[in-house]
Amino acid sequence: MSKRYDQRYFDTWYRRRGIGGAQRLARKVALAVATAEYHLERPLRTVLDIGCGEGAWRAPLLRLRPKARYLGFDSSEYAIARHGAKRNLHMARFSDFASLRPCPPVDLLVCSDVMHYLPLKELDRGLPGLAELCGGVAFLECFAREDETEGDEDEFQARPAAFYRRRFQALGLRQVGSHCWLAPGLADSTAALELAPAGA
C-alpha cells in the first residue's frame, strides 16, 4: 500500500474531522463488550485489536473493564513509535497474522475500519489468523459497496457485503449482528434466532 498512516493522517481524520467521535466510539466499544460477555457468560478479560491505529479503543474499553488486558497491532510506524509503549501497541501488518500468534485466543477480537482498505491478497493471508485468535466474539467492522460511507475513500475497496460474509463464514465465524461474529467454538451454544442464517 502506498497510503501513509502518519501523524498527518491521524490528525486529519481522527482529530480535525473527528471520524465517528468519542461518543460513537464509546457506544461501539460498549456494544462489543456486552456482546462478548453475553455469549461468554462472564466478564471480559482479554482484547486483541488488529489494525488498532493509535489504540483508540483502549481508553473506553478500560473505562468499562479496568482489569481487561488490551493488546494492539498496527502497521503505522508513527502510531507505534508514539503510543506503543504506553498503550501496549506493536508493529504488524494484517498479512502477518497468517503466522503471527501473539497471544492465546482472546475474549474480544477487534478489527475496526481496516479490511475495506486492504488489497485482496493481504486480506486473504491474514483472515484465518483472526479466526484462530478469537475465543469469544470478533468485532469486524467493514463497510461494503452497498453502504453510503463518509470519510477516507483513499484506497477504499468497494466490495459487496456478501464478499465479507462468505469469507468470515468459511472460517467458522457466525454473525450475531452489528459487526459482531461468534468464534467457531461458541456457535453451537446459541439459540437459533441469535444467529444470522448461514450464507445470508
From TrEMBL:
UniProt organism field: Luteimonas composti
Segments forming domain Methyltransferase type: 48-133
Keywords noted in UniProt: Methyltransferase, Transferase
GO molecular function: methyltransferase activity
Protein name: Class I SAM-dependent methyltransferase
BP GO terms, sorted: methylation
Enzyme Commission no: 2.1.-.-
InterPro entries, per the entry: Methyltransf_12, SAM-dependent_MTases_sf
